[in-house]
Predict the 3D structure of the following.
Amino acid sequence: MPQEPLQIEDLGATPTSQRVLRLKGPILLSNFFQFQALVRADPSHILILDMTDVPYIDSAGIGALVGAYVTHQKEGRGLALAGVTDRVRNAMQVTRIEQFFTFFENVAAAQAQ
């Protein structure tokens, strides 16, 4: 069975130095490299990941999120997750990484923060 691709739409930066990346598809070992590269190269003050259309995530995807968190923390920048599904949130709870992230119901709520 072919793996579903991860599509990443860069919605750009706002005047307040917020950048939104809209993710569509699962975050898996087979497709997370583009995501990881974009996050590492991101210079914005706050990165918002719109995960509304991410149905599930594997351990490599969890690792990519942790890497994004560490990169942003070291550089004094913010990382927000918007629209995280119950299935993805449960995976984050099981792996005990949920505590590191700030969650918002949607992108608008994250941008307002």
Observations:
- Residues 30 and 45 are 29 Å apart (CA to CA).
- The two ends are 41 Å apart (CA to CA).
